[in-house]
């Protein structure tokens, strides 16, 4: 026994992860050697060498696409290492050595990213366990994390909070996924660092510029989709010269009416034009970066959802499909949305020494949203809503070792542009906030503990006119009253995150967090027709802040053949705010009759499970599985909340045709099972949840190595292979129509 203990004391574990330097995407099937021992990196890019003798070891990494790597490591304790590899000479950089990886981050893998090119952000994230989507038709998609969406999810672009009119269910994030090479989802401790209102989690989008690559590069991504007859083109140019780096990208897309399995959906086309530019100067201790982006889109809203009277709307919901016959067209008429989002950011980073870094960021964003509806009097080119949201942010962060300290401030102004001929859906408002935060990571042998604390203060000042439906003027019209309101909110948030390595292959992670969220402008002040969702929404001035306690426990197992990440979570939210349907209420306006939704509050309990697993069945055969379910209970009346995802299972079988470079040539069959939402209260919605459904996709992908380091990637996919007719419970237009039918997607990616 003593001998066994003595031998164990002389041994240590080396574990690590291999990333692609340009994108930070995990690299699988990379050969890793320590002396005579060897292994292959897993699907997550991870490798493990248990029971290595303490002392100096030689680590070598080989892959035919990347330059070989070799480094001597003085192994004196259990150690984790993260390495970034590049295909260009001198592009192998050791990023970090630490005792353990403190938390799990879900990264959109390179393979999934390529398959989802041309899709929006929500659809691109949907392959991650626990991520669902809330839709308004097929072009407006919002991501859902553990049952939360909208203002309960933070989106960071290059370290800046994305600020837009995210309160609307039909307001998708104004993000061009082509502009960001690294897309990650964080559900754990680091989400608090960027905002206490991240009750669901954080979506992190970054586009790192390499400090090593010299010269120029070009990539062109193009694709065609048969459903909607869509075409898109994206170009990206990079240039690195000395200490200066710059890149610029342009994306254009156009599609027409979407077709369900059996009929066209009228006025469901879109037209996009996005641009971005990122420049960086990095010399010695100083780094300055400038980011400019433009997102511009015009999106049609299904015309069959805008109906004249109560009898018609009830008949349409009962029928569940449009009465009119639509044909294919690229024309986008009313109802529609036109959105432009502009972002400018400048950042400065000063590295005092190897342990201390000071960062400062200033950004300004302008979100201009126009919503058009069918008008009977004025021109349809006059918007029903014309809102401009301007946000300025300043952040200063000091990082020293495993400690972090920072402050964040925001000035935000929302103005409704006059001349629409309608009363604004939400009033003009000023929303100012200040926050201070701190974070520290402690290491105790095989265990890590991360502590975070944050204080937030918010100030709200709103003014606008509202209809008083309880009174009538002498001529029978409804009078308007001037609303003026000021509110302040403040609170503390905290998080404790612990990670313990049970074995070299198995680890346990636990996170306990306390967070809060102030009610947003629409929840407090909305009063009117929400054009995109074809609903009449009513806010509540007396809403209180949400206060949430969340506990996450996860088991993570990683080996060469099998990888498992399973998380269980429970979240208790006091005064949870939700948009409650009023099935017996309709509001008739001059533009039609619409169902009423009212913002309400109740104590809530969210709990669920997310599972992500992969298995190497045999040489060149892989199986992948993602499963998630979430329950959301109203604790006040023991009922279920609406708009919560049903159980979902997604699995895929992959045959790697090229045994020498498995990611370069493969055939994949994907299956998704969406269970009907059984956790539903009868009479609480305008229609019962749609039945369960199965969807199948078939994907073929092949990469070609051309002359002079040029590469071409070709892929073809049949989505909804069997043209299944189905409805998605989380589609706000499911009352009136079915979801998208079969689509053939063809993609070409060229790089040099």
From TrEMBL:
Annotated TonB-dependent receptor plug domain residues: 100-201
Chief location of this protein within or outside the cell: membrane
Keywords carried by this UniProt record: Cell outer membrane, Membrane, Receptor, Signal, TonB box, Transmembrane, Transmembrane beta strand, Transport
Domain TonB-dependent receptor-like beta-barrel: 394-721
Source domain of life: Bacteria
Membrane topology field: Multi-pass membrane protein
Keyword Transport set for record: yes
Location(s) in or outside the cell: Cell outer membrane
PANTHER family for this protein: HEMOGLOBIN AND HEMOGLOBIN-HAPTOGLOBIN-BINDING PROTEIN 1-RELATED (PTHR30069:SF29), TONB-DEPENDENT OUTER MEMBRANE RECEPTOR (PTHR30069)
Annotated family: Belongs to the TonB-dependent receptor family.
Protein name: TonB-dependent receptor
Organism expressing this protein natively: Sphingobacterium thermophilum
């Amino acid at each position: 026994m003593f001998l066994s203990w003595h031998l164990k004391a002389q041994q240590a574990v080396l574990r690590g992860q291999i990333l692609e330097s340009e994108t930070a995407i995990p690299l699988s099937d990379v050969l890793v050697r320590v002396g005579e021992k060897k292994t292959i990196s897993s699907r997550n890019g991870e490798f493990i060498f248990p029971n290595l003798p303490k002392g100096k070891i030689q680590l070598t990494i080989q892959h035919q696409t990347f330059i070989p790597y070799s480094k001597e490591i003085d192994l004196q304790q259990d150690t984790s290492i993260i390495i970034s590899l590049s295909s260009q000479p001198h592009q192998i950089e050791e990023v970090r050595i630490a005792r353990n990886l403190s938390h799990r981050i879900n990264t959109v893998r390179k393979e999934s990213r390529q398959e989802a090119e041309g899709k929006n952000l929500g659809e691109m994230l949907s392959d991650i366990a626990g991520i669902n989507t809330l839709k308004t038709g097929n072009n407006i998609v919002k991501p859902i994390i553990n049952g939360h969406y909208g203002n309960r999810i933070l989106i960071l672009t290059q370290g800046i909070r994305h600020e837009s009119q995210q309160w609307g269910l039909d307001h998708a994030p104004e993000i061009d996924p082509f502009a960001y090479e690294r897309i990650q989802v964080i559900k754990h401790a680091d989400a608090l660092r960027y905002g206490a209102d991240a009750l669901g989690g954080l979506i992190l989008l970054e586009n790192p510029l390499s400090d090593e690559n010299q010269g120029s590069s070009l990539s062109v991504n193009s694709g065609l989709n048969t459903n909607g007859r869509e075409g898109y083109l994206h170009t990206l140019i990079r240039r690195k010269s000395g200490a200066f780096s710059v890149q610029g990208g342009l994306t254009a897309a156009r599609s027409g009416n979407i077709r369900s399995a059996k009929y066209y959906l009228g006025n469901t086309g879109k037209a996009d034009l996005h641009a971005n530019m990122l420049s960086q100067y990095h010399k010695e201790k100083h780094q300055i970066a400038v980011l400019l982006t433009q997102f511009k889109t015009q999106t049609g809203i299904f015309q069959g959802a805008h109906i004249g009277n109560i009898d018609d709307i009830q008949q349409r919901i009962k029928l569940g499909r449009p009465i009119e016959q639509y044909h294919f067209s690229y024309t986008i008429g009313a109802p529609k949305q036109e959105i432009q989002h502009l972002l400018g950011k400048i950042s400065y980073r000063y590295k005092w020494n190897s342990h201390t870094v000071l960062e400062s960021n200033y950004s300004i964003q302008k979100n201009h949203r126009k919503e058009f509806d069918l008008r009977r009097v004025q021109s349809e080119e006059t918007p029903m809503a014309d809102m401009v949201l301007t946000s300025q942010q300043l952040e200063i962060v000091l990082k020293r070792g495993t400690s972090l300290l920072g402050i964040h401030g925001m000035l935000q102004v929302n103005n409704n542009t006059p001349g629409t001929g309608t009363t604004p859906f939400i009033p003009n408002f000023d929303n100012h906030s200040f926050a201070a935060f701190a974070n520290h990571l402690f290491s105790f042998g095989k265990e890590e503990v991360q502590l975070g604390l944050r204080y937030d203060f918010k100030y709200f000042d709103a003014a606008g006119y509202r209809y008083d439906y309880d009174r009538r003027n002498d001529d029978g019209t409804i009078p308007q009253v001037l609303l003026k309101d000021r509110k302040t909110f403040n609170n503390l948030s905290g998080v404790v995150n612990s990670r313990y390595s049970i074995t070299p292959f198995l680890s346990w992670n636990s996170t306990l967090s306390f967070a809060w969220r102030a009610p947003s402008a629409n929840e407090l002040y909305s009063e009117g027709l929400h054009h995109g969702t074809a609903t009449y929404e009513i806010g509540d001035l007396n809403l209180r802040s949400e206060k949430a306690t969340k506990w996450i426990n996860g088991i993570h197992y990683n080996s060469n053949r099998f990888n498992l990440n399973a998380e269980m979570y429970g979240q208790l939210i006091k005064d949870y705010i939700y948009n409650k349907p009023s099935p017996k209420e309709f509001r008739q306006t001059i533009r039609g009759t619409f169902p009423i939704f009212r913002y309400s509050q109740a104590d809530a309990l969210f709990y669920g499970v997310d599972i992500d697993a992969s298995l190497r069945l045999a040489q060149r055969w892989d199986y992948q599985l993602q499963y998630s379910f979430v329950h959301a209970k109203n604790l006040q009346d023991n009922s279920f909340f609406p708009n919560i995802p049903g159980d979902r299972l997604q699995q895929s079988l992959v045959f790697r045709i090229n045994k020498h470079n498995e990611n370069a040539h493969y055939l994949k069959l994907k299956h998704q099972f969406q269970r009907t939402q059984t956790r539903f209260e009868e009479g609480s919605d305008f229609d019962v949840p749609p039945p369960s459904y199965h969807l199948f996709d078939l994907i073929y992908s092949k990469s070609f190595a051309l002359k002079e380091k040029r590469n071409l990637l070709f892929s073809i996919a049949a989505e909804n292979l069997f043209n299944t007719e189905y409805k998605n419970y989380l589609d706000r237009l499911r009352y009136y129509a079915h979801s998208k039918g079969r689509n053939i997607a063809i993609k070409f990616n060229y790089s040099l």
